[in-house]
Fold:
Amino acid sequence: MAAETEEEPDVDDLLDELEALELAVADEDEDTQSRVRDTIRMARRIDETPPVFGRVIRGFDRHDAAEALVGSVVFGIPMAIEGGTLEAGEYLALHPLYFVGTVLSGIAIVAGLLYVAEIQDVRVVDPYFGVIPRRPAGLLTIAALAAFAMMTGWGRVDWTEPWVALCQTAICFVGMAIGGALGDILPGS
Structure:
């Protein structure tokens, strides 16, 4: 049995077939033509309401930023109040390569959630400087600012020791970045 090489049909394929059928029945009675036109209208209405999952996600707007902020905060609050975040940050302060690895791992996980895990079909549209995708740049910026604000505002870090405070904030940032990515793509906007 040979494997099929054609893609799965979608609503656009259905519409093409119905339009061809409409032309073919042009000489038929009015009832048949009307039924074909009604079917085409129905197929177009179905195509106008895409499902939550499986939509193509493009760009990064205020709505996406708000979803990312909510996801970041939901993941960030437990991290900010947990003492283990501070301990892990102190450990990173003593091991700068682990700090770099932690931040890069967080960025890689966000990129993986957006583009590799295929939770949604996320497209790169109009990247900054022609290379930096807007969605991960926005998500990471929101997570970084939220982590800084939360850890500082709640007195969880002491900026008189900036390196230690930065490492502690980086631990919170990684969790918030992952939460922000999930918060943004799961609703499917």
Notes: The two ends are 40 Å apart (CA to CA). The CA atoms of residues 15 and 41 lie 9 Å apart. DSSP finds seven helices and two strands in the chain.
